Amino acid sequence: MNKPLGVLVGIVVVAEALNTAGAWYTGTKLEGVLKTSIEQGNQALATQLKGTATRATVELVSIDRGLYSSTARYRVNIQDESAGADAQPLIMQFVDHIEHGPLPWSRIKTFKWMPVMATSNYALEKTPSTEKWFAAAKDQSPLKGQVTLGYNRSVDAHTEILPLELALDETSNLSFSGLTMDAQSDADGQNIKAKGYMDHLKVHAVSADKPPVLVELNGLTLASDLNKSPYGFYLGQNILELSEGQLTFGERQSVAKIKNFEYAGSASAKDTLLSGRLAYNVGDITLDGKSVGSAKVVMTASSVDIPAMQSLLQIYQTKFQPHADGTLPVAQLTPAEQIQMQADLEKLLAAKPQLALENLALKTANGESQFHVAASLAKPASFEQPPIDLVKQLVTSLEAKLQLSKPMIADLSNVQAQLEGQTDPQIIAEMAQLNSETAGVLAVQSGLAKVEGANILASLNYAAGQVDLNGQKMSLEEFIAAMMNRFGGMSVQE
Prior knowledge:
By secondary structure, the chain is of the alpha+beta class. Among the domains are: 21-162; 387-487, no CATH class. 29% of the residues lie in helices and 44% in strands. The protein is built from nine helices and 22 strands. It has helices at 3-49, 105-108, 131-136, 306-319, 335-350, 387-394, 406-419, 425-446, 476-487, and strands at 54-65, 69-80, 90-100, 118-125, 143-149, 155-161, 164-167, 173-176, 179-185, 191-205, 213-228, 234-249, 254-270, 273-287, 290-305, 354-363, 368-377, 395-405, 450-452, 455-463, 466-469, 472-475. The protein has a 22-stranded antiparallel β-sheet that branches. β13 and β14 form a beta hairpin. α4 packs antiparallel against α5 (335-350) and α7 packs across α8 (425-446). The longest helix is centred in the first third of the chain and has 47 residues, at 3-49. The termini are far apart. It holds the Pfam family DUF945. This is DUF945 family protein.
């Protein structure tokens, strides 16, 4: 044997020996790692589903450990408590072929030679609960994926839902292109990045007593970049983009379509204070092929005390959140809960939170309307004081501004007439003109707005007990008295 070949053989032998040793080590540690991961996953599920009627758990059914690979089976139980005590849970069972590290063959053959602890190749198995799903996927496992676990406990995952053609009943059906999702996280899921894509989803629902409904979604992209906060929930960014959505509905089978829908949500924290932003944007809205317009919504919040918010949410979920059937809980707040709720509210207000609807905009072919409102809150000296004094201390500032386009009102009147089946162009035009002019007259008569050109305008600014309504300045007491006299004929009582 020549020297270079001998060196090569030596390297292969040493590498195989190290791989065998690593595989043995991985195999001995694997069961403990799986049990820990499942326990953490169940805790996370319980937290996410708290306050809902859904309960879900994951359990490790079995694990057959080998030298180079192991086979594990998991069972997922999903129970809908709103369906009644006799309802059967949805049971999904997964088989998982786990390749031991440090060099799983599935990674070697794709030229991924970085040593890892294990690579999991899982797939949904057929059970009575999932046999229809299998049939819709042409008897293939409709849900499968691969998860690679690094020695630093990082996770690299790929999930795939296969295309489906499914008859929901004798007259309704579903067509689904499939979905792929890739995600990465570090140890214990402190930092998570994920991205998914779906090409299309179509649901055609037909019932005997209602008109058919057709829902179509095309080009859906999901993306997240999240960091786990010290308070147990994730901060960061979530994005959803939809190229096109379509709804066919009603007796006339009207077709409402949106294009270029975007959702972006972000949250951050500084010490114990939370800030967040939600933005929705629809690039184009049409009805039966005729343009309606575009829309945008932006909401923000800042200086929200996290521990107080979490405590209040917990009380709400256990005492006030409606059940799945719409009924309200019958349990009343205990004296201790009442004290806790007031303490949380005071703490929340002491942080001086700021809430805003930064922009609510609707643009049509002939006009654009916008609305903005922002409020700053503070902790009052006491809640046991006259209402006006309480408002002065509770609301430190309030700003609202409205620009309502009369041509936009006319455009929307055209849409309403179209939905109602009106086809006479002259009647539609007359009604649109009447509605836009009536809106302007009513706004002026109310004393809350004025008309300038093609727009109805209104503005309200409040700070330090003083109100500015469309340029007219007055005290808070005078403003409340004016509103009560105008709309209710009531007098102010302190």
